[in-house]
What does this fold into?
Amino acid sequence: SQEVVSEESEEESNGVNLMEFSDEILLHILSYVPCTDLVLNVRRTCRKLATLCLDKSLTHTVLLQKDYKVNKDKVKQLMRDIGKEIYQLNMAGCYWLPSSTIDHVTRCKNLVKLNLSGCHVTSLRLSKMLSTLQHLRSLAIDVNPGFDASQLSSECKATLSRVSELKQTLYTPSYGVVPCCTSLEKLLLYFEILDRSREGFMLSGQLMVGESNVPHYQNLRIFYARLAPGYVNQEVVRLYLAVLSDRTPENLHAFLISAPGSFAETGATKNLLDSMARNVRLDALQLPKAWINGSGLLQHLKFNNPFYFSFSRCTLSGGHLIQRVINGGKDLKSLTSLNLSGCVHCLAPESLFRKAEDDIDSSILESLVVSCCNLRHLNLSAAHHHSSESIGNHLCQLLSRLKHLLSLALPVCSITDVAASVEKPPTTSNLVPQTFGRKVRIGIQTYPRNLGDQANQKIESSVFWALMGSLRFLETLEIIGSSFSSAMPRNEPAIRNSLPPCVRAQSVGDSEVAAISQLTYLQSLTLAQLPNILTGSGLVNIGLQCQHLRTLSLANLGMMGKVVYMSALMDMLKHCKCLRDLRLEQPYFCAGAQFFQALSHCSSLQRLCIVSRSGTLQFDAVMSFMANCLEVIMCHMFMGESLTVCKNLQQSIVRSFQAERPALNVVIFPLLHEDLTEVIRDVPMRHLDEITLFKSRVAEEPPNLWW
It folds into this structure.
């Protein structure tokens, strides 16, 4: 034992003692440790850490929103130990915590910002809690069925009268606490009201009796509303907008409404827009497509220093975009985020006689790039943006000038070289990897094992390879087929048939995927409907080179009748040590032992979602994976298995792992079952919105909209 002690002493003398670092360095290191671990564990190790863990820089802001290991007892102890030191508390999406947990927030007497989105909070509990938080200025809550504003005490309403920032997610027709917030400057509304009750009754958008109080918008600077599909959401948001149409706030500088489908303009909304055109100068704008299409609204609206524009799904032409928004090439260096998703004519001079598949006008894109040179987030997905044969004017070549881009979404057909796109699309007979001098059997793994092999396959000369090389700091990339639609839409039955990919996209495959591996700092990657994936070899390159990758979403790659990239995917996963979210959508996907064994190498994985028509799974393989990957708290699989098989597996996972993982959420269900929509409505909004449902997320909303 004396020899062991002497060896340890020698190692300590030759090594670096963490406690010898300066306080500043130690505080920086500790800032990466979850607050619950700091307060409940780390500070008990020694006197120095006991002091540092309670430093104001570490206790001022407490983030619990993705601390999936936190439970009611930990929250109780945390609030008891440092409650008075907390000024900002984020518990968003902590759906697994019982509603009684909220009672402990009353210890945080000095709270200024509080986020309880996704938490279970009743009217009475909310009233009791807010009555003690006299310094609160920012609040985020959910309004669920049964919410009753008449239960809010006078002390609670006094606190709400001082709140200047409110984020409210509505699951029932209601004003929530908005009428009590008389000092609102920022209002964010998320409408998640379903058209039918669980019993099948149609719901009404009329507010309940006693909820006729008028919201106070006189100090409003930011108004944001995001609507889930459904007519009830549209009815309720019109009630919120009615007050704005009577008197537009003078200081309004951001007006954003995100509405899927058709949201018709009414007389009240037209009066609101006319008033905005006369009285305010905006910095951020997003409107439903029906409010912009065919109107001269953009010609009359005035902008100050805009930082966000979204014209998603509008028929706005490139000519109107340049003339009315950019003022013929006006300097728009302030613009950092632009969403043109589904805006099929935005890169063409006019839309009247143009087909969606016609070539773009490169001069319009060039004007956009020159004027908005500081763009950090750009979404051009869900449209056919075909480049002409003009040298130097390819979409990828023009976008390579945007050196500040952090996130980018493009349609698959926009990244192909023009020469390749005019070649004959690949047919079934040539979908097998070709080599020289010998025959190749289908199913044999033949993809190149390293980047050097891929480089010999003409990829460095492609415009997409050059684009990826010029955007070295890109963190989020989405390459989505212009006609792709997920098999799992929001409130409808699963889609059984998908549209074929664009003809120009037929040549996009493994070499383009390999080009993405140049993005060293890539954190989130989405690839959907790449028809020419033969082996998936580029995925291996990404796994090797993109070591910061946290989110991966793959959908409908290669042939639809077979998962041709399975071997490459399994090799890729062995290198993805930082991967936290994985979403796979592919017909006939076999979630078997080999796949889950490879996935077990992703030691940081937290959420898994598989959507597969006619897909299969292995019971023992799933259970073994869940036992090996201790961080996994979400497992969603929508496959082709029977309802009995799915239910048995789901119950086994919950029974085996729920006690150890309080946040565990498991949904295993037949994809084509008629009750799928009923199952989806019970999924926590955090998982549903962030991973389970497929959508483009680049420039979906303004950056830093909420903390």
